[in-house]
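If you are new to this repository, start here. Below is one unmodified record pulled from the training split, so you can see the exact layout before writing a loader.
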Amino acid sequence: MQLHVPALLITLMIAMPAIAASPALIKTPDGALQGRSAGNLRIFKGIRYAQAPVGALRWKPPVPIKSWKGTRDATQFGPACVQPPVRSGSIYAWKLPPTSEDCLFLNIWAPADAHNAPVFFWIHGGALTTGVGSDALYDGTQFASRGLIVVSINYRLGVLGYLAHPQLSAESPEHISGNYGLLDQIEALRWVKRNIKAFGGDPANVTIAGESAGGLSVMYLMAAPPARGLFAKAIAESAYMISTPELRSAPYGDVAQEALGTWLAGKLGVKDLSGLRAMDATGITVAAATAGFLPFGSVDGKILPRQLVDVFDRGEQARVPILAGFNSGEIRSLRYLLAPAPKDAATYEKEIPAHATDLAAAFLQRYPASDIDGSMLKTTRDALYGWTAERLVARQTTRGAPSFLYLFDHGYPAADDQGLHGFHASELPYVFGTVAGTPPEWPKIPVTPSEKSLSAAMTDYWAAFARDGRPQAPRQAQWRPYGSGRAYMHFTDRPEPGTHVDPGMYEFIEEVVCRERAQGGMPWNWNVGLAAKPLPPKGPCR
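And here is the target side for that same chain:
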């Protein structure tokens, strides 16, 4: 039976003290787990879903968990995956929990009376470098109170999760390497398919969801043949369909992943794979990040068969309903992604033609010199996040899957005072109903009726989509699918439906990316504006 709790009551629960917990015992096909009951919810923390190969076995696929006898404790979160220390001064700074190379754990929030309940499978963000599924920002209480079963996961990060190397490929039965963090996510989905029924969940109604690098992971999973059939719907918040490094070639200007692994070993003063495996997990993680190693999935022909843009253009991705969107101020909290600003408007207008070539006039109309800072923020936002979100829903619509687009454009005093209106990830506490669980440096969200109302509405929309693929909320505006005149939902102080989000943005970036793909030799990550190489001439797109 699904729970139906009035939205206003749920919003008030955000500020309520924790409900006293009592034991909860459950028997899964893999073995028995002892969690906690809290009111009408059952919470299970730190469930091992796979064994992470460590030390001398590092950089191998996850080992499926074996069934066990007796009862395992599931009342404490497992350690986070090894990651660099959190940067001080960032609004995303948080207290890093204990870490371990042995970190493949997941957490579950479930209604006590769940039966065939929809499953919300959450993949945290953090540039594939940082993050943990147990972050208070992702607490599943509000979704579980709406009848969903929430699963949050850890997956290997950084160099431990995404290193490719010729020697790793040589020892692999499939002659590939990298993508270990992605393989962890797939193994977690297999665990859910095998065990979630014991928690009252429906293994045929799993929604994969993630933000930022979690949204990138959602696209990887949609493209990965081994993940096919493990989920029924997808949510991608602030995802970015960047050019993905390939295992042994570099068609788009990136270094081939195996070559990058060889370079990194030399940079770390290590001769071979055994030397890399002998390094301390934290030591190699920090050293690799300091050296400039950036973790990405690897196009290896098997786990990721081809570039994401090509997979979606060819219609080879999972044909599932999708909800995707981006935030109005994505780059306001990610200014390190910006190119150096020109000294004045005249310099800006003079420099743009060298980058945008024959599209310079159109570029300056969209991103004018009259507001250089605003234009640069919008340029990078559109190239990374806006274009990706609309491309996802457009391609899924073409495949006949119901698709829904949103723009999160909400501000509140503490954020707006810092120039952070609609900043990257700012939708998360509204989606999860966790305004009290934001990082300590995060602009504080006021606990007011209007903020609670917006949060309740967004949680309702997301929960409804996970339930049946239609994001609707009681007493809120109807969210029409993108195919209805390029419809989208505009989240300001309240949900407001509209059509044609930022008219012309998608077409402009699509033209830029199309030309860059056709010529090759350059990445299209945020390759626009003052950060771009000269735009190739117009020609047929692949």
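Two things worth knowing about this chain: The chain has one domain: 7-13+34-82+97-531. The chain is about 30% helix and 15% strand.
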